[in-house]
Specification:
The chain is an alpha+beta fold. The chain has a domain of about 140 residues: Pili subunits (Roll). About 25% of the residues lie in helices and about 25% in strands. The chain is built from one helix and eight strands. The strands form two sheets. It has a four-stranded antiparallel sheet with strand order 1-2-3-4, covered by helices on one side. Strand 2 and strand 3 form a beta hairpin. The longest helix is centred in the N-terminal third of the chain and has 53 residues. The model has no long low-confidence stretch (mean pLDDT about 80).
Length: about 210
Amino acid sequence: MCAPLRNSKAKGFTLLEVLIAIAIFSMISMSSFSIFNTVIKSNESSKIRTDRINELQRGFLLIERDLLQIAKRSIRFNGEAPQEDFLYTDNNSFSDSESTLAFVRHGWTNPGLLLPRSNMQSVAYQLNEGTFERLHFNFVDAIQGQEPKVRNLITEIETLNFEFFYNKKWQKTIIEKSLPQAIAVEFITKDYGLIRREFLVAGDKNVK
């Protein structure tokens, strides 16, 4: 005898239901990707800003360390006669720089005088093609032909200016054979605009 036929109540998905499910899944996937992409871009942007702030902080910290130890000592370039002033702002001293400030500082660590050099250091800061640089020589009085060691500090700078605090006011020029009470470093950057930092120096007792 033949087995009786069974009526099955199981039903499959219709084409419309499949299309709706695919559309919903696609929308969820696109939303998830958009959120994920936004998070990645936010992290990248945050890292760029953090790195930039760290660059600025390191640069200003190094400037402050040097300016706090300015020595009342003249500067000598390329074996020439010593300059008359303690600060030097001639743009042609080191390179075709847009702005320069040079001086001699104390406190260049040389424990036990193990290295054949002084514990004083000739230092210069300059703007060179949009980068704020620190330069120094191995010897406090640079000999002819000696190239300075260059360290890039802060990038993306459009202009650089120095100001000097004498006689209870800021001015653009130095007073001969004297040190100011403070030096201001002023940048115009591409991202943060104007940035100005003022640093105390040992100063000159004869200048109020």
